[in-house]
Design brief:
By secondary structure, the protein is an all-alpha fold. The chain has one domain. It contains 22 helices and no strands. The longest helix is centred in the middle third of the chain and has 26 residues. The chain starts with a helix and ends with a helix.
């Protein structure tokens, strides 16, 4: 019995397998990987988890999941999701995204329009914390640049995709960052610093690639791009405050209040509409918040039945040392994202297992959080059935496969991460 407990039980992973079969199966059958809402798949998986381990009474299982959901990191993560949603809703309603984009296009030289579009996307996504919001805000600008310069629509929207994934991975208010930091138990600023030095070479090479590919074209915007510098200030305050190490709740609340003040002052938000703007942003985070709670319940039961121990035993037999553990975390994050087509869900699912690997192989939490975020985002920016590529394609009339060849940054981010693991000393 002790030998089984030390090795864990493979059958304990059945709830996760059920979710993946349902989620992927519905996607392949319908051609739409979002045909089945993730929350439905996870609820079915939770039901399967309850059916297992009959040695444990139903009431005892309730206690197990209550302890899992009541974990400090899970509660903190859910609260940050909601506060980040409030800021995102307020700053979007105040017109901050368009002003930030137009400001960048006005400042940058016209002969680096596509490379500049990548930089603008980086800033907007870093400030907004959402790749989907960045793509929605900047896709129309990418279309206009394509029409004015003669460059293919694919390379222009590819620049937006690359910048969107940059912020999705790094932003302190991105749901992926929030999930990675809280599942691994590290500080937001520490994860950012660890992550930034790894992906910076990938971002620089991506910028240079876009310059080389568009070097002979000069772009001139005929119409005047109007922006309001005050609408950009909340983004800057949040970014600077987070990097300075100020508590993330304080930073986001201050950013939300500033956004509402700017929105009302500029006429973008009616005084009677401030609560609606905040509420819309919070509602956009409901799905991932509920999913995080359900996944915490599933993982608690899977761990109790020996599933986490089985994965650790499996990994320990095939990898040795700290570097092996880091490669294991990277592979885990990538595979789960490929299966779920959602990098935040992938981090929430893989996070508890990665934490166990950290403890086993003496890996720092900030490094584990960086690896989880990087490699899930790498795959998310390249899979043709991911929400980001599907959105970019639908907004431009292209197919995901036409855009993927220009998604340099996600690929280079993964390469940088692998090199970092290979050469980085403890």
């Amino acid at each position: 019995m002790r030998e089984v407990e030390s090795k864990g039980r493979a059958i304990a992973l059945l709830p996760i397998v059920v979710f993946l079969v349902l989620f992927l199966g519905s996607g392949f059958m319908t051609g739409d990987f979002y045909a089945m809402p993730a929350i439905v798949g996870f609820l079915i998986a939770l039901f399967v988890a309850f059916m297992q381990n009959r040695e444990l009474k139903f009431q005892d299982k309730i206690r197990v999941i209550a302890q899992g959901v009541g974990n400090e990191n899970i509660i903190t993560m859910c609260l940050i999701f909601l506060v980040a949603g409030a800021f995102s809703g307020a700053v979007s309603a105040a017109g901050g995204a368009k002003s930030a984009a137009y400001l960048g296009l006005t400042i940058l030289p016209s002969n680096v329009a596509v490379a500049g579009l990548f930089l603008i996307s980086c800033f907007v996504s870093l400030s907004m914390g959402t790749s989907m919001g960045t793509i929605a805000a900047l896709a129309p600008i990418a279309v206009e640049i394509s029409e004015k310069t003669g460059f293919s629509m694919a390379i222009c929207i590819g620049a937006v995709m690359c910048g969107a994934m940059f912020g999705d991975n790094l932003s302190v208010i991105s749901d992926t960052t929030i999930a990675a930091v809280n599942t691994q138990g590290c500080e937001m600023k520490d994860k950012f610093r660890e992550n930034f030095k790894i992906v910076l070479p990938a971002a620089i090479i991506t910028f240079l690639l876009f310059i080389v590919l568009t070097t002979n074209i000069d772009f001139h915007m005929e119409e005047e791009l109007s922006y309001n510098i005050w609408q950009v200030i909340p983004y800057l305050i949040v970014l600077i405050g987070a990097l300075a190490g100020i508590n993330v709740f304080v930073v986001l609340i201050v950013g939300t209040i500033l956004s509402l003040i700017v929105g009302v002052a500029t006429g973008m938000i009616l005084p009677t509409g401030i609560f609606t703007a905040v509420g819309d942003g919070i509602q956009s985070m409901y799905d991932i918040t509920i999913i995080s709670i359900i996944v915490a319940c599933i993982v608690s039961l899977v761990r109790k039945f020996g599933g986490i121990q089985f994965i650790l035993s499996f990994i320990k037999k095939r990898i040795k040392g700290r570097k092996g553990g880091e490669f294991g975390i990277a592979l885990l994050a990538a595979l789960v994202d490929i299966c779920t087509a959602n990098n935040t869900v992938a981090i929430v699912m893989a996070g508890p297992i990665a934490k166990e690997i950290c403890d086993e192989f003496d890996i720092s939490p900030r490094r584990s959080a960086s690896l989880l975020d990087m490699f899930s985002s790498t795959c998310q920016g390249l899979i043709p059935y991911g929400a980001q590529l599907l959105s970019a394609a639908s907004l431009t009339g292209l197919t995901p496969f036409q855009i993927i060849p220009y998604c340099f940054y996600p690929l280079l981010m993964g390469v940088s991460g692998l090199i970092y693991i290979a050469i980085k000393k403890k």
